[in-house]
Amino acid sequence: MYKPLLLLITLFFNVSLAQNDSIFCQQLVAVKQLVADKHYQPKAINDSLSQAVFDLFITNLDNDKDFFLQSDIAQFKTQQLQFDEYLNTDNCLFIDSFKTVLAQRIKNTKTILESLNTQTPDYSGGLIMQYLPEKEYTYAKNLDALALNIEKVVALKVLKDVLNTNHDIQYIKDNFETLEVKSRLDIVKNQLCVLEEFTTNSGGLDRYVKDAFINAFLQYHDPHSVFFNPTEKLIYEGELSSNQLSFGITTEKNKEGQITIAQITPGSAAFINGNFEVDDIIISLTANGTTFNTLCVSNDAIKAFSNKEGHKTIAFTIKKKNGTIQTISITKTKIKVEDNAIRGYLIGSDQDLGYIKIPSFYTNDESLNGRGVSSDFAKELYKLQKQQIQGLLIDLRFNGGGSMQEAIELIGMLIDRGPVTIIETNQKETYTIRDVKRGTFFNKPIAVLVNSYSASASEFFASAMQDYNRALIVGSTTHGKSSAQGILPLDIEKNLGFCKITVETFYRVTGQSHQSIGVIPDIKLPSIYDNLNSQEQYYSYALKNHSVTPTLKHNPLAKLDYNYVINNHKQRLKSDSTFTNIANSNIKLKQSIYNKGKKYTLTIDDVLKNQNNKTALYNQVFQEQTNQALITVNNTKPTQQLLDKNPDDNRLNQDVILQLSKDVYIAESYNILKDLIKISQ
Question: Residues with Cβ < 8 Å from 386, sequence gap 6 or more?
Answer without folding.
Answer: 636, 637, 638
